[in-house]
Structure formats: structure tokens, C-alpha cells
Amino acid sequence: MSMVPYHSSDIKNYKTYENSFLPKIVTIPLAQESGYEYKILVNRGDVVAEGDVIASYTDESLNTVNIHSSIPGVVEDFVPTVCPNGKFNYSIKIKLQGSFKYLGKKKEPEKPESVFSSSVINDLIDKGVINTFLLSKPVNLGLEIKSLNKRKLQSLVVRLCDEDNFRITDSLISSFFITEVIQATKIIAKAINAKGIVFVVNKTFSKMEELQNCGIDNSRILIINNSKFPCGFKREIINEFNKSLKKSLPFRVLKNDLFVDSSTMYDVYKSILLKLPSIDKMVHFTGNCIYSSCLLNVKLGTSIKDIVNQIGGFEKNPSLVVINGNQTGASVSSLDVPITKYTKSVSFLSSKKVTDNHIYSCINCGKCREVCPIKICPDVLYKYAKHDIEIDEIYLKTATVCNSCSLCNTVCPARLPLGQMIATIKEKMTNK
User: d(Cα 165, Cα 171) in Å, to the nearest integer?
Assistant: First the structure.
């Protein structure tokens, strides 16, 4: 892949965002977050309105998580679909028809002070708001808060920059919607009774004055160095907090606290203050194969192909389409992949920007072990998953502490999908 990260000047070049064109067809996957199996609530031929619940999941505590139709229309079919994470899942295919309930209707937001904290968590669950702080494991924000509350979480950490230096989606959202993100932060901090709030930014953050005057008690700004990777994951944020802020503050930041990003907080703003279900997503489209990069507000279920047509087609045919950043994302082989709640960016790269993609055999060079910030052995875990080579249980357990930074992928001369294999093992170990 191309290994030229974004610079602060790239973010300054963006002045606004745009709404994507309305798709004639949306294909909405039944896997919007990790670990849930949704029950389809509609039949072929059913007419649905914009925002109608089309699938739901009820957990052991009787919390109901919903997926909503992003457009008004008719349910055409239920089809297998390749999702942005590369996995297959069934999707609900809806053809556009009828009038919109939310689109084009101006809504005055409620004031954060008027929101009842007791209803916030249930509203987040009902509206289907997903926490995309860790893209390898997107989770329903309301259910995550309920789970963390049982462990007595202390702080709320809001990352306003991108952990992947090849992606600027969260940075752009922070730039365009800092007021909305701050209002959402007030709501969540009150709902979880946070002892402290930490805004995580990089050195080039452009909205520092707004943060400094946000009016949130016990809030602090943590500046991280994004010139070195990894920089925005839990471990790195906690280490930097302990190094620069811990001694001067009455609260701590722990791994079981609530970590969110600006993309998630903007969705919180829309769901709580505008009363909108989660039916669209801010996505950054870029790469040297399109005429101009842009940030678009996209209806969930819209295919990448439809977006390409909107932005003028390809200037040159892409050799690689990368979802969610070159560092931590994944490549897809089809433009029919739909936009989901965990899609942040799409990059179209030509052959000049793509290195050799052929997967070779492991040469036992040890580079993946050297670069791993957690000091696990990606090569050992890969051989276990790929070739069913028996390994000690202690190696398997190390997969659960992987932070999904994918540094091992970037240094592997054999082009092995080490990070993806570790993620698979981690998911199995966690479920077990």
C-alpha cells in the first residue's frame, strides 16, 4: 500500500462537507457491530419508511439494539454481501420509494441541559449508535456504557484526531462539528457520571480555543504526538496521560474507562439532541484515482460504486480499494461493498501507490516481533491460525491484548495478513 501519511495542511484544505446523492438501492448488512446476530423484522415486498426498524437484537438483559432503514422504500430481497471488514453477511436490500421523514426537515436541537441522563443510554441503544473508537471491534455505545458502568468507570476519553495517520475522518469531523461534539460530550459525561473528561488531540489540532472554553468541569486536553505510530489507541493514550497529566489531576484514566472518537460523538449529538436514528455516516473518500477528495454524509447501505458515480467516476482505474485507512484498515475486491456504521474512509489507489500484494511464505525474519508495541509474536499466531500448527496456550492468550495497530503487517516482507489473523484469534478467545 501507499505509505505517505496525511499532514496538517491536508486537513486545512477542507472547508466543508456535502451530502451524498440519494441511492436508488441500499443494501444494509445485518452486521453493523461486533457480536450480535440480528433478527430480520421485515418481509419481501414490505414498504418501509426512513428510520423504520428493519432488524433487531435483544441481549440477555432484554436490551434491544436496532438497525433502521436509511431510506423510504420497498424491501426487495435478502442477499449475501461482502462487508467493509471483508466478511460475508446477509443484508436487507431496499429500493428507494416514497417520501422522507427526516431528510430535508430542519430540526432544532434540544439543549444538553434539558436531556434526562436516565434516558440517554436507552436512547443510544434504540437509535443504534455505534462506538467506532476501535474499528476492529465496533460496538453499540449504549450497551458498552451499561457494561462499563458495572465496573465503576471513572473517566470519559474523547479522541478528536485519527489513530491512523492515513485517515483524517475524525480530524475533519472535529473541525466541522466541534460544537456538536462538545455538546455530546457533556451529555455522555453526565450520563456516566464521569469524574474526568479527557480530550485527545494532536499538535496540529485547529479547534484548541473551542476546547479550552468548552465549559465542561474536570475536562483536560491531552496532546499526543502523531508523528510516531501507534499513537491513538488506549494503551498509548493512557501512557501519555500518566506521563503528562496524572500528577496534576484528581482523576485517572484506566483501560476500563469509556473511550470514544469524534465520529461517535457526532452520532450521539444527532441521536440524542436531534432524535435521529443512526441511518447515515460521515465518510472521507480519497486516493489518486479520483478527481477530488471529499467528506460526504452517506446513507447507510449505499454502495461504493454509487459514490464513485457521484464524485465523477475514476480518473484512473484503482488497483486497490482500502476501507478505514492504509494502516489499520482492510482492502476490498468489489465496489459493491456498502457503507456501514463503522465505515470512516475509502481510498482508491492506483498501481503506482500499491506495493507488491502477493503473499509469500514466512521467512522467520522476526521484524513483526521487533515492531510490536505489545511485544507479542505475530508470526507464531499466524502459523497457528493459517497452518494449524500447535502452540502453547500462553501464546494464544497474547492475542487478547493486541491493540489492532497492524504495525506487524507493514513490516512483513512476505506480505502476510498478520493483523487480520490475530484479530480472528482474539475474537475466538474473547468469545471462549
Answer: 11
**Alpha-carbon span 34 to 40, nearest angstrom:** 17
Neighbours of 302 (CB within 10 A): 28
Q: What is the pLDDT of residues 80-125, one digit of tens each?
A: 999 998 888 899 999 999 999 999 888 889 888 889 888 999 999 9
The one-letter amino acid code at 371 reads V
For the beta carbon of residue 154, count every other beta carbon within 10 angstroms.
18
Are 350 and 318 contacting, i.e. CB atoms less than 8 angstroms apart?
Answer: yes
pTM for the structure as a whole: 0.89
Residues 199-212: b if buried by 16+ CB within 10 A, e if exposed = bbbbeebebeeebe
- Segment holding 332, helix H or strand E: strand 330-332
CB 56 within 8 A of CB 66: yes
In contact, 339 and 302? CB cutoff 8 Å: yes
Q: 197 and 156 in contact (C-beta within 8 Å)?
A: yes
Tell me the pLDDT tens digit for each residue of 269-304. Answer: 999 999 999 999 999 999 999 998 999 999 999 999
